[in-house]
């Protein structure tokens, strides 16, 4: 199979992939901020030589003035990843008052890269009404393949930008930085389906594997497993017995439950009040068909938790989140998402120690689960543990580089900490992610708003305000939309408009601790109207909003 070749440096139990900018421990990728990996690569490539602090900073932050504390923080994060001790170094030696030197024994090797993007399957059904099913097929395959530690899988958001691609597969592969692409189609009618799938080399465009399945609907799970197994075989990827079981693990035997689950998941990704309420209804219908369906319970818990946190603070939502997350863990204790869902519920109740244990369990089960990193970061943010939140957000962005949510929140933290260079770099990453998403989904409100704050922070206030007002034209009633618009107005100096938006949104915000650490709101803190708003609790929302 044609594949890319990466230059790698091996030392101890670690392998540093110089081309992919990934550090692996015993073959499993570690989730690190890009600057941390870049720092390690610079040190390793100059192994044995003292790199003065000024030289290191000039290499890592060219043409930009940064304080020495930026380098110190990066080295601390790097040592933590390597399990290194500054006093008894195995890898990074500190040269007092001068700089650093890499002292590990390295072996240079060439390593084949096995990477894949799974595109949404094309709907060929007569009614063209199976969009949710086609996305769900791809989503399930992405999740299965991403659980394999030696395989690099493009994220859902990245791959789904190329829905029904008009580009040549080689160009898709180049844009997604993968060596192979899996695509297919679904034709579903009268209780049966036809699925075609093919794995294509993104290097030369040749087909590596193809399959066609004419089956009854209840056979969909067998087909998904067969496609995953055939893909892995075509990639010449050797699986351990545990990895084999991961691919074979069933979620439900009910096609009806599965279809409702797929509809719910598609709605959940929109992250709006109405979409979350509709998603929850779909998940409820799924467990009505199969009361042992763990992912559907986790979906109910997530919808309920976020509806409580950002959209109203109803105690009934918390009750639903509690019951559903407990049931998800009970029926599927090996499901990482179940523990992440339990964690975000516990955090919303202020039970942070229990939440931390749930998040750590989720990460032990699946270190690549974006939600575990992102939900954990949110919990840390609400407690004021901003350094820990920043590390978790960098890890979340390593799993899902196009996550506008993680990058915007990370930029907010660096802004509040006055770490100007990291702040600038992060907002550039956030803006790039938002623009890439909006190229394909121009009416998606959340990237519009979070991209707007990035634009304003990068000095493009007029354009950022234009994005903000476009988002409000699309939905001026959703409390979360209004909150993020207020943040954009606040940092742009439009304090009056910021207050107007907050007056409509804050009564629905249950996580009041979040406001203490949101640096986007700092320009408003001295205003009496803002201080008065902080005294208004969620229980008063109906009095205020009617």
How would you describe the overall organization of this protein?
The protein has 546 residues and is α+β, with helices and mostly antiparallel strands. It has four domains: 4-111, Winged helix-like DNA-binding domain superfamily/Winged helix DNA-binding domain (Arc Repressor Mutant, subunit A); 114-250, Rossmann fold, CATH 3.40.50.10070; 264-387, Serine Threonine Protein Phosphatase 5, Tetratricopeptide repeat, CATH 1.25.40.10; 401-546, Alpha Horseshoe (Serine Threonine Protein Phosphatase 5, Tetratricopeptide repeat), CATH 1.25.40.10. The chain has helices at 34-45, 53-60, 68-82, 131-146, 156-160, 169-176, 220-234, 241-248, 255-268, 273-289, 294-310, 315-331, 336-348, 352-365, 370-382, 386-399, 404-416, 420-440, 445-457, 461-474, 479-492, 495-505, 513-517, 528-534, 541-545; strands at 4-11, 14-17, 22-25, 28-30, 51-52, 92-95, 99-102, 107-113, 115-118, 122-123, 152-153, 180-189, 192-201, 207-216. β13 and β14 form a beta hairpin. The longest helix is centred in the C-terminal third of the chain and has 21 residues, at 420-440. It is globular, with a radius of gyration of 24 Å.
Radius of gyration: 24 Å
Strand fraction equals 5-15%
Low-confidence stretches: 541-546
Estimate nothing, just give the exact number of structural domains: 4
CATH homology superfamily name of the largest domain: Tetratricopeptide repeat domain
The biggest beta sheet is recorded as: 6 strands, mixed
What structural class should be given to the helix and strand makeup?
Answer: alpha+beta
Number of strands: 14
Number of discrete helical segments = 25
From the N-terminal CA to the C-terminal CA, the straight-line distance is 63 Å
In which range does the helix fraction lie?
55-70%
CATH architecture of the largest domain: Alpha Horseshoe
